[in-house]
Amino acid sequence: MPIALKVRRSDMVARGPIGLTRGMVMAAVVLAPVVTGLAGCQTPAIDAPHGSASLSQPMPVSIAGSYLVARQAYKLRDLGHAASYFEVALNEDPENQALIKRTFLTELEYGSVPAAVTLAERGVKGGAPAPFMLLTLALNQAKAGNWAAAEDFLLRLPQSRLNQILRPLLAGWVAVGQADWSGARKSFAMVEALSGFEVLALLHSGQAARLEGDLTTADTAFQSALEKSGSPPLRLSLAAALFYASTQRPEKSGQVLAKRSERDYDALGVAAVLKRATAGQPVPGLVGSASDGMAEALFDIASALQRERGNNAAMIMAQLALYMRPGFPLAQLLVGEILDDRRHHQAALNIYRRISTESAYHSMAQLRAASSLQDLERIEESIALLKGLANRRSTDPTPWTRIGDMQRTAKRWSAAIDAYDLAVARIGSVQARDWTLFYTRGIALERTQNWKRAEADFLKALELAPNQPYVMNYLGYSWTEQGINLKQAEGMIQKAVNLRPEDGYIIDSLGWILYRTGRFMEAVPKLERAVQLRPNDPTINDHLGDAYWRVDRRIEARFQWRRALSMDPEPELVSEIESKLKQGLPPPVILREHSKKVGIRRVPDA
In degrees to the nearest 10, what's the CA dihedral of 319, 146, 153, 111? Predict the structure, then answer.
């Protein structure tokens, strides 16, 4: 059966908007087109394996040879070696400003910020520094406590929509570094005036006011941020809760987190962090300096840019955030996410493992580490990690859900059902987002022929998500295969097609119910469209072959069946197709809905 299961495990648990407000997600659309304007030259479309070696160490070769090897490293997505070979080329032509910029950007994205600082200084001396060079030098000066020099570099950044947000955010924290609290408030107010960035500005204002000791202003800022965001991102909720705990108001801290589901965060870990904050002990997560605040601002921009997926500037901003605040868990999570997107799963795993067990984000890092292990096909390690997390988070269904997903992917249907059952037992109050759990458990149950339970799960998923096209498709297709509820099944599948008109699986389901109810001529164009959209699916090609046969297009039917055989179908389908190639199709069995009551009757076509 072709299945339109579009729920990725990473989308289900670990990649929520930890750094963005709803307005910032929309504002990311504004930021994305102007990133190259900040870079000053096109950011190379390269990836950072962070130590994975696919090329040998640099050899003494010509400048042209080094440059070509560096370009090849780009194609191999090997930033470390690309940077090394660019350095070799640059040693041969040290005044080449274009080469300086390329090497600088490569080092920056790779995370070698000290090397990038040296190259930025060379770029400035050359007279035409890229804006990213000015930004990097500003951060370097701020990190050293040279606030006036940092401010000077920021002022030299060119006007752009991105800098309209970034510059006042960073300038606000430069002012904090100089104890210029009035200047900091003015800078953050400039960001607050920009549509979509009000909550972000309030978050930074509150953090700065806390450092100043102005608890009244900090209270107002955090409260306004929580109210304006509607559904606060986890990061904002934790920042506010930490603030209240650090000012000996644990009750108010608890009120903030009480509005969130404990499935969103590690309740035990957060409770331990809040307890330390209430006791006045050092707490990971609190902004403790102006440099920390600058790192938070860089993370916010990086997080917005990452919404565009594949945006190299997001990695650069995240690396700069880690430069300003080593061990910053949110930036580490973002770097790991980008590496996972680029299929550098071992590098991502290494990043996730660095996040402290004392961090409020440790469990989130563990979930992502489990994903990286799965992508590395280290399934048993991933399951073991998730089981340990499940023991720690006794009310959270997520670890068992993830285990169920892995077992289902491996077609270990019974093990998947067991895991999903444990997840469902932990849900407590069922919410709309739980539709995926009932849907995926329904799939595993259907595959073990436990249709009664499977159908109940699909119907529950539809109750929670009435317009979910993939649930409607799976349930409608299953009913069609069993010859029951045909009118309802067709209505469901047609609605799913309307919602996902480019989904080959769903269009195949519509064609198949037309076929099974004897409307062969209507089925053919639907199934042809499904094959166009999913040309390599054996079941869809087999369906089209069957439809061709019924409309007397026998040569084309045999062609489609042979195509389906070439696509590594399941053994059961192989046997069916081989029989059809030898003998053709027998007379059709047409499914018809009973006219007066629910049920069907199977009537051979005369």
Answer: -10
pLDDT of residue 555: 97
Q: Which of 229-238, 306-315, 567-576 has the lowest mean pLDDT?
A: 306-315
The β-bridge partners of 591 are 602
Q: 491, 442, 499, 444: which is closest to 469 by C-alpha?
A: 499
The two domains 43-129 and 467-606 share their CATH topology (first three levels equal): yes
d(CA 376, CA 348): 11
Rounded CA separation 1/461 (Å): 20
**Residues near 127 by beta carbon (within 8 Å), at least 6 away in sequence:** none
Angle at CA of residue 319, ends 318 and 321, nearest 5°: 65
Going by pLDDT thresholds of 50, 70 and 90, the confidence category of residue 603 is: very low
Kindly tell me if the per-residue pLDDT of 498 is higher than 90.
Answer: yes
What's the rounded Cα separation, in Å, for the pair 513 and 497? Answer: 13
Provide the CATH topology of domain 43-129: 1.25.40
DSSP at 394: T
pLDDT digits (tens, 9 = 90+) for 258-270: 888 777 777 778 8
What is the dotted CATH code of the domain comprising 467-606?
1.25.40.10
- Whole-Å CA distances, 92 to 45, 66, 72, 83, 128: 24, 10, 19, 14, 20
Identify the H or E element spanning 337: helix 329-341
> Residue 593: phi, psi to the nearest 5?
-70, 140
Local structure of 17: helix, strand or coil: coil
**What residue ranges do the domains of the chain occupy?**
43-129, 467-606
DSSP character at residue 159: P
Distance separating alpha carbons of residues 381 and 366, to the nearest angstrom: 12
Please list, in sequence order, all residues whose beta carbon lies within 8 angstroms of the beta carbon of residue 244, skipping any fewer than 6 positions away.
222, 250, 252, 253, 256
Both structure tokens of 497 = 């097609």
H-state helical runs in 428-503 = 435-447, 451-464, 469-482, 486-499
Q: Calculate the alpha carbon distances from 207 to 27, 121, 124, 328, 497 in Å.
A: 22, 32, 33, 16, 48
Our measurement of the distance from residue 48's CA atom to the centroid of its chain's CA atoms, rounded to an integer in Å, reads 18
pLDDT of 58 reads 54
